[in-house]
């Protein structure tokens, strides 16, 4: 079983890439929240393919229909289901090679798991396309958080081996910085680095290859006291969701893996009383979380996104029907780098996770 | 809410460091599993403090009592509860400074979360001591997995800035290597590196400071097909549990963050038919998981463990009662590096997570 | 939160009576189950209104569309979502009286619960119409159970004060009896009683009033050993679902309330070895369940369905806007007795509950 | 799996009748609730055996120890575990007959379920003794509810065929009536009926037989708006818990099964504005629940408790080892009627269910 998550905000996703529709049901939204359809569309557009030469040429309109839980422009408090009908599907591209396991994809594991009965076309239920409903749900949650002053923003920290030279001040980052990043289709701090990243993606595309990268996400204005020790820790909750996003292979909070190279006296975030009588820390190596619970400092984490497995280069693989070694050449239209389109997905799922932790 | 996790194997933990007892209830164990009490004791001894000069001088016997779900040497299939009575507690050490927030600890977030009603002594419910029941439960699960041929092993990949120079062959690691690591109280591949790591820990201890490190864990002989896409992916399940372990700040699978620096053509694990007619991959950059589901290759992940926040050095902090800046000097007996004792905890929680994913 | 249930078979329902669509997502169906669309249609037709003069004149086609989890005529193992688009809605009928609380309905409680933001038209999310997706899901589950030999059947035990004079032999009822009942739109054993029941419904309709009744349901060929003590008992599981069906106000297993009038020596079902070396009981007062677990005898329970609250007679109520006492006369087309249409719903939800208990 | 229930207040029970201990962990209690140990003891005493000649002669002290989640007299907000050590067990009584299936008990179903590995002594995990931890948890929850003005009370409506002639005014029952009932070890309204009930129990005891009965429970001062449509309805939630109590075979809300004999015009609870400007109903046939949600009227339900299956009379059964028909004569000390001791259990589990529904 796979498609349901949450306890206060429960989401239930469904759909296959080339089936009739994909969608999501959100249970637990409080009644009376205004739904800003334009805001949702903007968020979904950030994820949609076909917008720049950095992404796949596939055009997916991602036009959603809200089927329930929505009345007079607001949430009703009952389950809200939205669907996106599928179209522009070149299923034939996939049929030809459906017995050839695409390396890095779930073709093999999906077949084993579902005893060959799964819809393999376009990755089926494993498709990155399933992240569109997550962005829909995330937009709803994010708007609710924003009304409470909570702002989410991300930057691309690296593409392949190119890193953003500048870094966010994770102790005192403000709302404007995060909102600016959110408006940028390729959010980096050092624009020159950003250009180099884009060039490397296009170069990779030209070579029939692909690139990955790291996304850094920050959430500000979270009150202290959210989350729990152990199994409902903020880290547990968010990592659970982040690792649900296809292609994510690593998650770290605050200084993350780097904190292991620090001494305790360096890593510990020392406290002080701020001028406005709040308890703050001088540093934020713990990324705003101690004992699984927010401490009021910015929440900071990073997600590692692997290079798109769909590449044009020939690859060694096996034909699972006749169990022979073969050479595979994938056709179809694919993203040379999924990182820019993954940014709104990461932010969306963060919004879902945070609202789930906060909602009573 | 915090203390319950799982769907097929459900665990429910409870306890505070200086309360009457800590414990765990495990629901969902199949009836008829022989319980090897010596094996459990061994596993718990690996985690217990006071054994070497690398760990705290606190002696905790960690003697467990099984209260239920156990009859004639076997599991009954009903909830199995085990408790560990607390003793050797120097509660006075903590009382003196209970209003002084210890940096890096959950003193502040716990107070906010629980409105000051939580048992602060020794970290209370946030104490690393709560990992003892997890090791108990993990030992039960691990033994069940071992009967199916599944073996778990770990090594300390780094302590502070010192890295184990050798590396595990994550494509073809065998059972013996993992079992050898399991028997070692300080498991590294390059023994010389291990000695340097130990020295650095003792040096750090002498300075009143602490160190962190990275633990690499490997699980072999898992069948392909375990896990689910999206919310019950192997990565989601294990990261959820791993981030429940106090001090873990990062988790990565396979090449993890490093995979972002590879091209798709390098990152993709190409398939081939093995001599014994199995589908295998030449490389294992995805750590044995594709689409959230095991592919039959070794499961590989790494956890970043932060330096112990309890250090003897003076630290800046605030007194939360009178809200003034103060200087804190923590007394008491603490681990200069929790990494070696975290190894069996990581392995235990891995066993719980894997059995939960596999059990029907 | 309300719309998600289950652990092995998870269902997630959504929709409002006069919204765009109603639907259900079923997560946890094993891959490879053939889906018999005609069978589903038949089951849904049993519930659909407008078929006889005993039910409402509203015509609802209840044409379902499967959006996901379905490929080449079979379940894929991924979440299966089906929707039914709404039509033939006379929303105006409801608008006029939307501030007048209909006695026996959820108008008042829904308003309080959802702070007036719920879609009140046609009962909104509280509408009996939401049982259509349950029948869809139940049909899928029932077919899977039937392949294992498990058969579900029901009879109308009473309508108002008229009781079916005959009774099912709950010790040795066979498959044919249950299948015959399933094919009958008004299943009773004593046909003459059945005619009287129908007459009383029509009489009640003529008086602008309504009737309720009791449905007895039987499941045969369940293996012994299904269910759990305490919180996952068969009774807990089924009653949870049965009380989710609108209008159900009582549930009893075996002799139910009547068992309280028996002595222990009468109530206890004594065991014997059957000729085919099975352990059976002479009587079945416990309805096939002991300690929350099936014992291999027929599972028997009864559900009390209250008279349809929508009646044409004038009723006292309040206008919730101006908080004044008023007289309400409900227009619209309503069932004079929901019992016959509730039979397939009860059976459907039973199938869901049983499969959830059985599936591993 | 069986022993965990709840979403906001989660309970996890464990233990066997003749094992080391039985107990419960409660997760989700808000921090800072004063724990009234005497109140808990009183409640547990109401359930404890050996107090009058109406119950078993077994003496169980039911002395609980709180192991966690409790500090300075209050809940800490972390999981609260309490255990009761077992003693006064005559395990030998059970061993002799352990292969002889006791009719009406879970001996057979438990064996099948747990493949013979369950602890059969004294009913093991199926023992009514497991209700002691439920009463402990219920007492905690009940006290929290009482501070909000919510009062729970019950009466024995019938023992065998003898019914309490008087009835509670379920429209306007007040707190004092309920508190009086709570203090009575054998709560009935018509004391003469109560005496007859007691006599019938003693008569039954003399005959080596047993009796059952019906318990009516009422909860007042619940605000309107608690519960949900469908799967988290008040009826679903409470019936789930009530059917977890051993021996309960029927549950009905409001008029329950009797409502099926009423016309809609009789069954509908008409609304009016009360003098203090509240919306009330003239009648309460729906037992305070509409659409699964409380309407502010008293919550009323009834539970059918079957006669104690342990009787001294000889019974036909089978020896499951050699699969032969045998005659069983149960020895040991048993309740001739469990109803009076079930009253506090029903109330306790009601308190847990209600708090779970109300807690945010």
From TrEMBL, chains A, B, C, D:
Enzyme Commission code: 4.2.3.5
Alphabetic keyword roster: Amino-acid biosynthesis, Aromatic amino acid biosynthesis, FAD, Flavoprotein, FMN, Lyase, NADP
InterPro entries named among the record's database cross-references: Chorismate_synth, Chorismate_synth_AroC_sf, Chorismate_synthase_CS
Pfam hit, one: Chorismate_synt
Cofactor comment text: Reduced FMN (FMNH(2)).
Reactions catalysed according to its record: 5-O-(1-carboxyvinyl)-3-phosphoshikimate = chorismate + phosphate
Residues holding NADP(+): 47
Top-rank taxon: Bacteria
Cleaved signal peptide residues: none
Pathway: Metabolic intermediate biosynthesis; chorismate biosynthesis; chorismate from D-erythrose 4-phosphate and phosphoenolpyruvate: step 7/7
Cofactor: FMNH2
Record flagged with keyword Chloroplast: no
Quaternary context: Homotetramer.
Family: Belongs to the chorismate synthase family.
Protein name: Chorismate synthase
Phylogenetic lineage: Bacteria, Bacillati, Bacillota, Clostridia, Eubacteriales
Gene giving rise to this polypeptide: aroC
């Amino acid at each position: 079983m796979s498609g349901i998550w949450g306890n206060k905000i429960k989401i239930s996703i469904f759909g296959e890439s080339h089936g009739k529709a994909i969608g999501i049901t959100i249970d637990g939204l409080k009644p009376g929240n205004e739904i800003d359809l334009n805001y949702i569309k903007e968020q979904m557009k950030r994820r949609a393919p076909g917008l720049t030469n950095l992404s796949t040429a596939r055009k997916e309109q991602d036009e959603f229909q809200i089927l329930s839980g929505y009345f007079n422009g607001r949430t009703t408090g009952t389950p809200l289901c939205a669907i996106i009908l599928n179209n522009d599907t070149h299923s034939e591209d996939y049929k030809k090679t459906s017995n050839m396991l695409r390396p890095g994809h779930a073709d093999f594991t999906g077949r084993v798991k579902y005893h060959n009965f799964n819809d393999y076309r376009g990755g089926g239920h494993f498709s990155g396309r399933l992240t569109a409903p997550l962005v829909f749900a995330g937009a709803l949650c994010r708007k609710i958080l924003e009304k409470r002053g909570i702002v989410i923003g991300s930057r691309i920290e690296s593409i392949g081996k190119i890193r953003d030279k500048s870094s966010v001040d994770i102790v005192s980052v403000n709302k404007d910085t995060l909102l600016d990043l959110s408006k940028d289709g390729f959010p980096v701090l050092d624009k020159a680095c950003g250009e180099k990243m884009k060039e490397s993606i296009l170069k990779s595309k030209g070579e029939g290859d692909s690139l990955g990268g790291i996304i850094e996400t920050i959430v500000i204005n979270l009150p202290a006291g959210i989350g729990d020790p152990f199994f409902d820790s903020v880290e547990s909750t968010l990592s659970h969701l982040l690792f649900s996003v296809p292609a994510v292979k690593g998650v770290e909070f605050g200084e993350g893996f780097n904190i292991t190279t620090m001494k305790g006296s360096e890593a510990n975030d020392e406290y002080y009383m701020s001028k406005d009588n709040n308890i703050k820390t001088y540093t934020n190596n713990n990324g705003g979380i101690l004992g699984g619970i927010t401490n009021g400092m910015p929440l900071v984490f990073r997600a590692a996104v692997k290079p798109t497995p769909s590449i044009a280069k020939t690859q060694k693989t096996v034909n699972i029907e006749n169990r022979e070694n073969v050479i595979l050449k994938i056709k179809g239209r694919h993203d040379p780098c999924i990182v820019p389109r993954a940014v709104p997905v990461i932010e969306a799922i963060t919004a879902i996770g945070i609202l789930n932790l906060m909602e009573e």
